Amino acid sequence: MAEYLNAAMLLELAQRAEQRTAAPCMCTKTPLDGWHSQPLSLDETQFKEVGTLAPEDDPEPTYSEYLPGKTTYWSADAPIAPRYFPYNRCAVWQCTLCDRLYLRYTEGGGYFVDRRIRAIQSALIEDVPLPE
C-alpha cells in the first residue's frame, strides 16, 4: 500500500513539486485545476503513485465535504482538505514528465464509476479538523 500522507506531508510534497515545475504542463490539454473526469487522452503510464490520503486505520472515512464560502466540489479554488471527502479517498500521483502532483479517486454511483483527477496546488491545501 502507498505511504499515508497527512496534510503537512502533502503540503511539503506539493511545494517541492511546484519548485521543480516552472514550465507550462504539456501532459494534458484539459485544465485540471478543479475536479474533472479523467480525460481519456491522459496517458496513465506517465504517472506513478507517491502516496495516499486514505488513512489505513479508517475503514469508512467521512463523506462530509469542506467547502467554505461559495466554493463547490467542482471549483478550481476549492480547498484541498485531506480529512474530508473526496480527498480522504484519494491517491497522490506524480507525472514522470513534468513532476506535477495530482489527486485521483474513483467516484461510484448507482449505475456508473467515474475516475476523477485534480491537480494539486499547495496554496489550496488546508489541514481542517473534522467536527466532533
What can you see in these coordinates?
The protein is an alpha+beta fold. It has one domain (7-124). 11% of the residues lie in helices and 21% in strands. Strands 1-5-4-3-2 form a five-stranded antiparallel sheet, with no helix packed on it. The chain is globular. It starts with 6 loop residues before the first helix and ends in a 13-residue tail after the last strand.
Per-chain topology:
Elements: H1 7-20, E1 36-37, E2 47-52, E3 91-95, E4 101-108, E5 113-119
Antiparallel strand pairs: 1-5, 2-3, 3-4, 4-5
Protein name: DUF1963 domain-containing protein
Organism: Paraburkholderia nemoris
Looking at this protein, list some descriptive labels.
11% helix; 1 helix; globular; alpha+beta; five-stranded antiparallel beta sheet; 132 residues
What does the overall shape look like?
globular
Mean pLDDT: 91
- Separation, N- and C-terminal Cα atoms: 29 Å
Fraction in beta strands: 15-25%
Structural class: alpha+beta
Kindly state the number of beta strands. Answer: 5
Largest sheet: 5 strands, antiparallel
- Sheet with the most strands: spatial strand order: 1-5-4-3-2
Unreliably modeled segments: none
How big is the Rg? 14 Å
- The helix tally amounts to 1
Percent range of helical residues: 10-25%
Number of domains: 1
Secondary-structure element pattern, one letter each: HEEEEE
